Predict the structure.
Amino acid sequence: MRRKGRETEALRGAPADGAAHAAELVLVGGGHTHVQVLRKWIMRPLPGVRLSVVLDRPEAIYSGMVPGFVAGMYRAAELEIDVVPLARRARARVLLARALRVDPEARRIELEGRASIAYDVASLDVGSTVRGLELAGVREHALATRPIRDFVDRLDAFLARAGADAGAAPLRIVVVGAGAAGLELALTLKARLREAAREAELTLIGDSADLLPGSTARVARRARREAEHRGIRLRCAETVRAVEKDAVLLAGAGERLACDLAVWATGAAPPALLAESPLPRDAGGFVRVRPTLQVVDRDDLFAVGDCAALDDDPWLPKAGVYAVREGPVLDHNLRALLRGGRLRDYRPQRDFLSLLNLGDGRVLGAKWGLALSGRSLWRLKDRIDRRFVRRFQVLDSDGAPARAFPAPGRMGDEEMVCGGCAAKLGASPLERALARLDAPPEDASVLLGLEQRDDAAALALPGGAVALTTIDAFRAFSDDPWLVGRVAAVNAASDIFAKGGRPRHALALVTVPEGRGSEETLYQVLAGVRAALDPLGVSLVGGHTTAGEELFVGISVSGDLAQAGDLLRRDALQPGDQLVLSKGLGTGVLLAADMRGLARGAWLEGAIASMVRQNAAALRAARDGGARACTDVSGFGLAGHLAELLGASGVSARLTLDALPALDGALALLARGLRSSFHEQNAAACSALLSTREAVSDPALGLLFDPQTSGGLLFSVSASRSADTLRALHEAGDARAAVIGEVLDSRADGALVEVLRR
């Protein structure tokens, strides 16, 4: 007998509505259920609750459209739900990391490559993997249907190669798994290859006595006829014991089926997260949940979709339709638990309209034991699937706001002040303030200081060695304090690298918002700082904390050089030198767009990867290339930092717009008129120093003024060594490194930089 929904008290310790970060709600995964919660949160957020989303990858793939993609009916982009802009519209914090383990006692979630996070209430929607991956050769040689993102990408590449070889020998394809997924893939693969004029010999293997185990005999017979009509060989009641590079090995007599592609569609298995977490699991390894979708014996933890097993409904298959219908119940129950109210039970229906794509513009439909097929059913399925996906596609495939998604309202309209290096005070006010100070007392040990301003101060030590020291600080550019701490440390260490030095020690100055969660915020910041410093061998030796209105992180780094002659200064550019930039540009506009829910998840992922990348390898390449002058590019933008080099050296430069390396999405966003809030400040300070015939609206020109957070090194090498230096940068992992221009004699008109197209 089912238990009825029950009343709950508001989450213990939760303050009244309106209090900042009253409770931490964490959604792990971006599956079919969680995207519905995010959409509802956009329309009706819960005051006093901070929502976070943990994603191992930015995009979710709608599984119901995968067979249509295989058949060539959809482009890959039409299957995608970009969860990052959806979450941003819901004002959610986004953590791009794989969840490794849930600790329900400590109420913490361990993440790959970063500090664990705390939750008051959490929900798991992490899908499933496929059974049998442990068999010999399966992981190495078979194409598994999960994770779906990997499956779609790898299959797309295979089909592209197959289509390019039209007329070649027939492809030999083996699909392992005779359930709905395996049957659909066999039928749609056959149709796709036939459309590409590529013959294929396709075999479907299942360990049950017939196709579609669990379906009625009538449906199974209809499915068999459809498969046989297309020339698909059926091998039922067979078991696979291993997969080789070019063959599938059957158990029993050991028959070897030669193949060019083995597709592994053997049914759902629990993901590693469940096996690593001390959670109640059923015989299949899936987390056990109550009708309210709460994990058994854990009121503050929910699980939905394929990763969950309902105790009261053990018959429930792993089908996307159930995950979709769990969405409204999960959203209601999360709110009820957080604020007090009656939780509802999820009551799955016993039968639903199952629609299997036959690959030829028809669908096989089954319900109430009946089976029928036709093009009208395909049109019904197509309409249902497209409508579902469109509800969550905030941006179109080009990254522009999707017409079908509701307008962002106040989120997209309000002016947001950027953080990170984009929040620096402009160069002109800084220079004017410094100029008003009296000259500092003479000190022979100061090699670089207020009189010779540079990225770091350089101090002469007895014996000829040099001590380097710098401090950098900025307001948070993200609502992820771990990321802010890590990037702040990477950014500060870059000042030492820019002078050719080795960072050794660091101090942290952190202002943390007052209130509940301040200790956790500080822990996350310092853990992020350590994540950046520890791999460099830099010791965090102390610091200071204060309380304030917003998160502010400052890092002071000291380092050393063996001798003063190794110092890379700003004033050593020479005419004829080539200018090299080690990282792509665009973090300013990408972070600004992300704050408004206007950046694709993959773009944000690329920007983060750039910001957390150390400049140590770039320094080695610069050193080996005989670099003469160097700086790092940060808040004043490329134009501002280049102007500092040129002015100090008494020379000018010619930049090639086409050569400027842009991070993915940066040019598209600049073309749409998006700017970091400090972009215009940089443009106003530098425009008079530029000579250009290019249109002011040119997006590439905008890259010059985009304020960078933790940008790359900008340095000069002789023209004869620039190619080798660029090759060394690429081999070391700085894939976007580029030669962006050359150093010239000073210009009569006083301009420092000439900008032109190639």
In short: The longest helix spans residues 320-339.
